[in-house]
Amino acid sequence: MPRGYFITFEGLDGSGKTTQLRRLASTLEAEGHKVVTLRQPGGTALGDRIRSVLLDSKSIAEVILPALAAGSIVLCDRYTDSSEAYQGGGRQLGSERILAMHAAACDNLQPDLTLMLLPSLESSLRRARRRNQRDTAKQGIDENRFEREPDDFYRRIYEKYEEIAAREPHRVTAIRDDARIEEIQACIQKIVSTRLAARTRS
Question: What pTM was estimated for this model as a whole?
Answer without folding.
Answer: 0.86
